[in-house]
Amino acid sequence: MPRELPIDDLPDLARGAALLGAGGGGDPYIGLLLVRAELERGATITLLDPDEVDDDALVVASAFMGAPTVVIEKIPGGDEPVQALRSLERHLGRAADAIIPMECGGLNSMIPLLVAARTGLPMVDGDGMGRAFPELQMETFGVYGVSGSPIAICNERGHTALLDTGPDNHSMEWYARAVTVRMGGVAYIAEYPMTGAQVKRTAIPGTSSLALALGRVIRLAHDEHRDPFEALAGCLATTIYRFGHSLLEGKVVDVERRSADGFVRGSARIATFDGGRTVELTFQNEHLMAREGGRLLAVAPDLITVLDAETAFPITTEALRYGQRVRIFVIGTPEIMRTPEALAVFGPRAFGLDADWTPVEELVRIR
Amino acid sequence: MPRELPIDDLPDLARGAALLGAGGGGDPYIGLLLVRAELERGATITLLDPDEVDDDALVVASAFMGAPTVVIEKIPGGDEPVQALRSLERHLGRAADAIIPMECGGLNSMIPLLVAARTGLPMVDGDGMGRAFPELQMETFGVYGVSGSPIAICNERGHTALLDTGPDNHSMEWYARAVTVRMGGVAYIAEYPMTGAQVKRTAIPGTSSLALALGRVIRLAHDEHRDPFEALAGCLATTIYRFGHSLLEGKVVDVERRSADGFVRGSARIATFDGGRTVELTFQNEHLMAREGGRLLAVAPDLITVLDAETAFPITTEALRYGQRVRIFVIGTPEIMRTPEALAVFGPRAFGLDADWTPVEELVRIR
């Protein structure tokens, strides 16, 4: 049933989205403030499950693109992602019937809510990444045949770019990244225009609800003095993600980070307090791979998250610091993200990693 | 009167356009071959003077954008600039009534002729640069208030970008350059959609005819064993450019050239055969400044050209080589290119040169 998102759910949703960001995607906090301001002004947000969308409805994915660190310096006025949607609608000659998140992890959990609140359009509870990923072609929509373009890209100065690369979503990302960099490092996009039928076939369902549930679990465990990691694992077991597991608890002993081509790349080492075990994390915005010695422990698209050891609050790759006491918590991805087609687009080799994907639940069991 | 461009005029037009390229703009030869092939297939090209365009006609500027050296490696199929026009027409919801060259110098003298031949649209005899310039905001259209965007950018793969930066033509150039680089270094554009009334007010009139006349003068002087430089100066005296002058004859004694940010920048030194005088040329794609010792001899927007000492055939900045025997020939620009508004956009300081513009005819007289 279409349902309204209560304002009081926003903090839990934001925390859960930060967790699904897998270290990247940007802090949802600024987005939370913008959405809350809309709801306080009396706006409402209606959520639809994918199977509640009409087959012939026009659904558009909404997001910001670029460096999350820049968003903090150039806080959006709030209208930029709406302008992107309107530009795309004009180009298509048709109004959207609903919007859908491109990415349920990080700040992009909030941008579509902002658009929903400002336009009155319902938002589909689902997304195209099931987590955060760094590039626009890394979406299940595209994996299963939807063209990402035409895409509309807008900035705070009212400048607009419309790109059409036919079915070539890699080229869309390639051009859009260049425009975003020249727009000042962050822009707002409307992309993957698709039918309701395509949403049902290609979206990862229920990911906003999942973020909300995970955020709530962390908060309640904290309030009730229970182990948040056990609670997270218990919650995940009931979802299409099925699997959550504490890989290691310890201290951050090394972080190496560099910015290149609009991405943050680097690695971090986390050692147990007795120094007996050390896990190395490799990241490109998001954590992509966890290894111990040469042995693979988890790899994208499965989620590798770094959480505060006490509170289970998520820590982004930018916020990793020497000496932090953390727990590495891994999460399995839904089946729709694990097909050969999906792994070709966002499996380890799509990130240039020399590893084959193995389900994280198997890697953990081997151990 | 609207008139047909005879196929036999193409070589003269191309040579004159190379001269007006002022060392840049790319060799028109490939464009000439493409246009000739269209005319040989039976297409015709109608030329209109600016005052023959209806005031409310929609006129669109047509060009390639990017590195001329790449065009030689990625020879256009011929349809790319037409696709750019069609994309812009779809975006505007209106068909163009005529096209106009963005740039009368270099290869861009030929691209709009190709579009005219392929579409049957008339081409306005005039342009927005009166020569070749390296950037899209450097057009009299924009100087006198026409917005360059929306602009359509297409490549040979059918990828399209539509940019809208309102009246901000610098930002249009900034984003379009990034897209062009990622499209492989060359792309085809349709820009500065404007009314016939705007064409009359902002275009430099008669520049295709001028190129044709200059090319013919060079050819006839060659055939008739007359001094081509005197003939060029005589021809220019009858036009709105008014002034052409041989600055120096000598040998290329030094060339320094580097590629950066999608442009070719550098300098060349040309010394008289007795070594008594040396002129230094500074270029960014086009020659921008000529100095002797510290003294200014000519500076953009006036045209500085390097011609073969014997034939007066134009030599591009890429083709400059040690030991070439050349003549530096300077040309004054029309009044419409010399107003304070125009000099703010393509005067010396717009190129980062530490010089104030002085009319070339005065600089030569001072000497």
Automatic annotation (TrEMBL), chains A, B:
Give residue ranges for domain S-Me-THD N-terminal: 8-164
Name the InterPro entries for this protein. S-Me-THD-like_C, S-Me-THD_C_sf, S-Me-THD_N, S-Me-THD_N_sf
| Superkingdom, taxonomy of origin | Bacteria
- The S-Me-THD-like C-terminal domain covers 168-360
**Name of the featured protein:** DUF917 domain-containing protein
